[in-house]
């Protein structure tokens, strides 16, 4: 019954969004309409996540190893637990790791690819929150191996290392969340600036190579389409990195410039219902929730940290959040999430991607955004 009441309140929001021109005097993220409160929504989605088993990209049966959408949702729930001071939730999220230390150790992915290596962010964040050393070595192993060449490396991997980059570099925009989160978390856990420098160096190379003049990003050089979630990964990755980079860091100004340029374009591509679409430059493509959640997170953090003017961007972020939560059903699942997507030089491929409900690609950014909204 409680779930249903929340669901009905969410569904009642259709006429309660705020006009984009409204000015908030330091109140952008206060006085939420009923059913949109970030603390309640975040707890609802986090509890739904922690009560379930490890996911296998929506396929039946348990996964062979933990997948990156699981990592991103687990990390989001940990961030929400920290921001809300919810000790019970934090303990449940830590308990979720315990089987991996024993009989289910094989579920830990091999550190051989960006999508696998990002798993290390979970033990690193658990170490940050609990100070229990049993998590630290697991996490550091993933972060270190992302820069240590594998056995029998390929020539291009050796070349990447010589440039100071990770051998896992692909020049896909997805990488700039996967690599960035892991290295930033390693810095947060250890205080070792080398991890932060790695992430910043990698980000600058990606920005210089693939950011378009309008601030947005193609999925890859051979997939010249403004895929929503791909751009979301980049927006969230820059946000994570800028949140950790000291003001005097050599690369901060370049990354901030890339971030602000992107946010300005996102403001323009937000639709009349305050969502973003599967292809950002195609308003006839479907409104997609995972990218909308990622952009909401990036905008909220930018406004709260003063990187973005509240008068201009506060309403954009607020309206995005209140629009996004209308896509959460009474079970706590987010609807209209683009299914897992490879790169392809075919626009119709992106337009034909299925819309799924409850996919962790969509659950994760709701938790990131909720945590950001309630954080001090």
TrEMBL record:
Pfam families named in the record: Glyco_hydro_88 (PF07470)
Superkingdom, natural source: Bacteria
InterPro entries membership: 6-hairpin_glycosidase_sf, 6hp_glycosidase-like_sf, Glyco_hydro_88, PolySaccharide_Degr_Enz
One GO MF term attached to the UniProt entry: hydrolase activity
Signal sequence region: 1-25
Keywords linked to the UniProt accession: Hydrolase, Signal
Protein name: Glycoside hydrolase family 88 protein
Source organism: Chitinophaga filiformis
Native organism taxonomy: Bacteria, Pseudomonadati, Bacteroidota, Chitinophagia, Chitinophagales
């Amino acid at each position: 019954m409680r779930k249903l009441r929340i669901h009905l309140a969410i569904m009642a929001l259709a006429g309660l969004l705020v006009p984009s021109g409204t000015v908030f005097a330091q109140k952008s993220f206060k006085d939420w309409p009923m059913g949109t409160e970030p603390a309640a929504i975040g707890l609802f989605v986090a509890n739904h996540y922690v009560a379930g088993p490890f996911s296998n990209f929506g396929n039946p049966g348990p996964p062979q190893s933990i997948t990156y959408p699981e990592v991103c949702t687990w990390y989001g729930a940990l961030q929400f637990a920290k921001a809300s001071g919810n000790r019970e939730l934090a303990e449940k999220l830590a308990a979720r790791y315990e089987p991996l230390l024993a009989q289910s150790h094989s579920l830990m992915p091999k550190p051989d690819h960006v999508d696998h290596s990002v798993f290390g962010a979970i033990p690193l964040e658990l170490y940050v929150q609990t100070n229990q050393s049993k998590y630290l070595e697991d996490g550091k192993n993933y972060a270190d191996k992302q820069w240590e060449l594998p056995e029998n490396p390929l020539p291009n991997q050796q070349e990447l290392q010589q440039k100071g980059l990770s051998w896992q570099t692909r020049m896909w925009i997805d990488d700039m969340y996967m690599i960035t989160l892991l290295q930033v978390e390693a810095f947060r856990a250890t205080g070792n600036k080398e991890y932060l420098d790695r992430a910043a160096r990698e980000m600058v190379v990606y920005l210089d190579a693939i950011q378009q003049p309008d601030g947005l990003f193609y999925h890859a050089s051979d997939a010249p389409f403004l895929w929503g979630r791909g751009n979301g990964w980049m927006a969230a990755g820059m946000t994570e990195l800028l949140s950790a980079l000291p003001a005097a860091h050599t690369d901060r100004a370049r990354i901030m410039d890339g971030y602000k340029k992107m946010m300005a374009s996102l403001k323009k591509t937000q639709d009349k219902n305050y969502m973003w679409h599967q292809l950002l430059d195609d308003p006839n493509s479907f409104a997609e929730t995972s990218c909308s959640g990622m952009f909401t997170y990036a905008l909220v953090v930018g406004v709260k940290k003063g990187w973005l003017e509240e008068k201009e961007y506060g309403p954009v972020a607020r309206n995005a959040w209140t629009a996004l939560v209308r896509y959460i059903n009474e079970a706590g699942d987010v609807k209209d999430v683009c299914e897992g997507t490879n790169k392809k030089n075919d626009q119709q491929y992106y337009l034909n991607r299925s819309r799924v409900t409850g996919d962790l690609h969509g659950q994760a950014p709701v938790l990131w955004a909720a945590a950001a909204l309630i954080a001090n």
